[in-house]
Design brief:
alpha/beta; Rossmann fold; 46% helix; 13% strand
Length: 283
Amino acid sequence: MSKVWFVTGSSRGLGRSFVEAALSRGDKVAATARNAASLDDLVTAYGEAVLPLALDVTDKAAVFEGVKRAKEHFGRLDVIVNNAGYAQIGAIEELTEQQLRDQLETNLFGAVWVIQAALPYLREQRSGHIVQLSSAAGLIAMPLGGAYHASKWALEGLNEALAGEVADFGVKVTIIEPGGFATRSGKNPDPLANGHVAEASPIYDGLRRRLAGFTGKQAAGDPAAAAQALLKIVDSDNPPLRVLFGLGFYPMLQQVYADRLKTWADWQDLSAEAQGNLDQADR
């Protein structure tokens, strides 16, 4: 049985690959982008199987209207993919208030609006699958990415809580955590080239130089392969709550989590001191 998808950020990158993979196997897709004209080629190729929608996920009313239109157009919604987002680059001290607010408005609140708009339909159906694009950056943090990390770490917690809230209604939640994936040039996208960069302070120039050798050097994943992996997830009767797309960050993640456990263990005595020994009656 074919599925009906609602995918944000469908104009390029992983979002476009997800849409194309779903359509190519006979599914139907409500594909959204800030500029609906970027979806014209999909309409030409797949006709009525695709519903192109102009959508800025930071516009809550537009999100609710777009989800409603998709449901009315196709009659149901099966897979909701929160993919829209970007990376704001800059040291915490360099970020303007507006840059931080804009990052959260798109990456976090945009996803929340889509979830809130879609859930009533999924609950009524007692079925559906919400797929949240997070990142390896939602699991670890590096200098100069504080705003982006804040948005992705927030999405990790939000969607883990959501999974527990909607399980009784037959709704599934999966958090996808990609590493780097190739652009059309076949290379990892350079986050410094996306235009979302805070005004640089010379105070952090040394740090920027040290990080330059690492940024974008991870092995680039194939978006088409990621899309096929996503199809397997949404077809699964028991999909994972979290899954990494790509193995480039796996060794680093193993070390980070081992270090966290060791730190907590090393400081157990202080943890006990912090708890104190008040009698329950004295609390």
